Amino acid sequence: MSANHKHAHVSPIKTPKQLVIVLVLAFVVPIIVIILLANLATSGRIYDEDAMAAEAVAKRIKPVAEVNLGEAEPAAPGPAARAAGKADGKKVYESTCMACHGAGVANAPKFGDKKAWAMHLMHGVEHLYENALKGTGAMPPRGGNLTLSDAEVKAAVDYMVGAVK
């Protein structure tokens, strides 16, 4: 063995006092470095006092969407009250029936198509009223708008039938 080989395995810590110093520094130095870096990162930062106000914080962290229950709208008039006034068949057709009868969706007879309505009319208008009120095939009761009164549904049927006569 050479002389250089013996000295390669010698530790730089020779005494227990040196070992304690190294261990203390191994814990203290990283903590000091972290504290100094934290101070450096936050130093010189001026916080806007308005931005720290409770209203500003609430505005920044509020959800993207929210449910607004707000004030309740006045209740829709009941069927009896609606029946008292004259039902507007055109208005009901445009708001409810046109979605299917305007384009002939799911074999619904198109508005104004005499040939398509002829088969339905041979059963009579009362049969059309019953189908409109109770539903038939792909058509839901009252055209899917359950808030419609009988008079409104019948007025819409009369309006559609009037367009093919």
Keywords:
single chain; 165 residues; mainly alpha; 0% strand
Description:
The chain is mainly alpha-helical and 165 residues long. The chain contains 8 helices and no strands. Helix 5 crosses helix 8 and helix 7 packs across helix 8. The longest helix is centred in the first third of the chain and has 27 residues. About 3% of the residues have low confidence.
User: Helicity level, as a percent range?
Assistant: 40-55%
N- to C-terminal distance: 120 Å
Nearest-integer average pLDDT:
81
Strand content: under 5%
Order of helices and strands: HHHHHHHH
Q: How many helices?
A: 8
Main β sheet profile: none
Q: What is the global morphology? A: rod-shaped
List the uncertain runs: 80-84
- How large is the radius of gyration? 42 Å
Quick one: how many beta strands? 0
Topology:
Elements: H1 3-7, H2 16-42, H3 54-61, H4 79-84, H5 89-101, H6 114-121, H7 125-134, H8 150-162
Provide a quick synopsis of the model.
The protein is built from eight helices and no strands. It has helices spanning 3-7, 16-42, 54-61, 79-84, 89-101, 114-121, 125-134, 150-162.
